[in-house]
Each structure stands twice: as structure tokens, then as C-alpha cells.
């Protein structure tokens, strides 16, 4: 039998690899009471405090309506805060609350540990090359 289209189609392979690699970490997030969109927002804000909503949408790969809906949920849960940008009151800046920082801190290490497990089957040079290729592709 000849290979099917998706057997070597890059976009399918990227999606399949992401789904398989992420599954275990997504289970961990669910056990912590977090959804993947909330994790992405927390992870982005952990190293980039005070992002504009448009910047956060780009970083999280969400469209603005989806991001706004998720931010509303997270704000009610006390994880994030929106405030006016002092340089342009029409814009909102999103920051982590103390609770948001406390929730994301251990998850960042758990995410790195999970990443290490996913990549452990590859030699170090392949891990480095894979990340470099993905960074270039995402660039």
C-alpha cells in the first residue's frame, strides 16, 4: 500500500507531533484546574508582564475575541488584571496577579520537565537542531 498524503505532509506532521507531545502536559494542566488557553496566557505573562491585549493575542496565537473571553474568565478567577496603558488610555495592559504568579511558577518548571521527557529520545544535537528549525519555521 502506498503512503497516504498525511504520512509525509509537513503541516499534518507538525500538528500530530504537537498533539502527541502536549497530551501529557495538558492532562497535568487539567488536574491543576487550568485549560490550555489559560496556561498559554499565564506562560506568556510570566516573562512579559504588562502586555497589550493585541501583543498577548499574537503571543498566544488566539484571535482577540477568544483571548478577551479567556481573560474575562481569568480575571474573575483572580489570575490576571487588566489596566489602562498610561501612554494610551484606549489600550489595556494585562498583568499577572499574585495568585496568577503563584499558579504559573511551578507549571513553568513542570513544562520544562515535560519538554525534556519528550525530547529525551533524541540525541542532544538533534534536540538543538529540532528547536532551531521550529524557531525558524515559526519566525
From TrEMBL:
The chain's coiled-coil residues are none
**Which GO molecular function entries does the Swiss-Prot or TrEMBL record give?**
DNA binding; DNA-binding transcription factor activity
Q: Which InterPro entries match?
A: HTH_MarR-typ, WH-like_DNA-bd_sf, WH_DNA-bd_sf
Which controlled-vocabulary keywords does the entry list? Answer: DNA-binding, Transcription, Transcription regulation
Q: Name all HTH marR-type domain ranges.
A: 7-139
Q: Which Pfam families match?
A: MarR
Note whether tRNA processing occurs among the keywords.
Answer: no
Stored SUPFAM superfamilies: Winged helix' DNA-binding domain (SSF46785)
Q: Is the Zinc-finger keyword given for this protein?
A: no
The protein depicted here goes by the name: MarR family transcriptional regulator
Q: Which organism is it from?
A: Paroceanicella profunda
Amino acid at each position: 500500500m502506498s503512503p497516504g498524503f498525511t504520512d509525509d505532509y509537513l503541516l499534518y506532521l507538525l500538528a500530530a507531533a504537537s498533539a502527541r507531545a502536549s497530551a501529557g502536559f495538558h492532562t497535568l494542566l487539567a488536574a491543576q484546574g487550568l485549560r490550555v488557553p489559560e496556561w498559554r496566557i499565564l506562560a506568556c505573562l510570566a516573562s512579559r508582564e504588562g502586555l497589550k491585549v493585541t501583543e498577548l493575542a499574537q503571543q498566544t496565537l488566539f484571535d482577540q475575541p477568544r483571548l478577551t473571553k479567556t481573560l474575562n474568565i481569568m480575571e474573575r478567577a483572580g489570575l490576571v488584571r487588566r489596566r489602562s496603558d498610561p501612554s494610551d488610555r484606549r489600550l489595556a495592559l494585562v498583568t499577572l496577579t499574585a495568585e496568577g504568579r503563584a499558579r504559573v511558577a511551578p507549571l513553568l518548571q513542570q513544562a520544562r520537565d515535560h519538554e525534556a521527557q519528550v525530547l529525551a529520545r533524541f540525541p542532544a544535537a538533534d534536540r538543538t537542531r529540532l528547536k532551531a528549525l521550529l524557531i525558524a519555521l515559526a519566525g
